[in-house]
Amino acid sequence: MVVTMRTTLDVIAGYLAASGWCTGGAVIGEPRAAPSGLSGAVFMSRAEHPSTTLTGTIERRYVTIRLYIDAMQEPLENTEYDLDEATSQIVSDLLGDFDLGSSVRTIDVTLMTVEYGFQTVGTTLFRIADVIVPMIVDDSATFVA
User: Fold this and answer.
1) Which residues is 47 bridged to in the sheet?
2) Which residue in 59, 61, 57, 58 sits closest to 143, CA to CA?
3) I want to staple 22 with a disulfide (CB 3.0 to 4.6 A). Which of 4, 5, 40, 57 is the partner?
4) pTM of the model
5) Calpha distance 117→51 (Å, rounded)
6) What is the pLDDT along the chain (145 residues), one digit of tens a residue?
């Protein structure tokens, strides 16, 4: 059985859009042009197979939610406040639906992280927050005797 993350990515992008924080929108995949306002992107970042059962694999898939906000907007402290509040709300929303609409077994909360940094898109410098969402997916491959 091939497991795709299409539904999971759609669910996460829906949370970003519904959060009210992503006034500049939420997209699946990294933007190629500079987004506006506080914007979000959802993309796959890693997959691993930490264990198996007698009939199939147990896979851990990582999705990155990247929040973008113009790093040069004034007042500068609002950039940090807004990014922190948006990140906290989005993490709370995700953990409230730990199986993401039954598209995964669970979010692996113990490995969930948020990393902050800067990234230039086009000619604009953005302050970013990467929410790394590790998810457990059962039976991404099945064993046949």
Assistant:
1) 61
2) 57
3) 40
4) 0.86
5) 32
6) 445 788 889 889 988 988 888 999 999 999 889 999 999 999 999 988 767 666 677 788 999 999 999 999 889 899 999 999 999 999 988 888 767 767 788 888 999 999 999 999 999 999 999 999 999 887 655 556 5
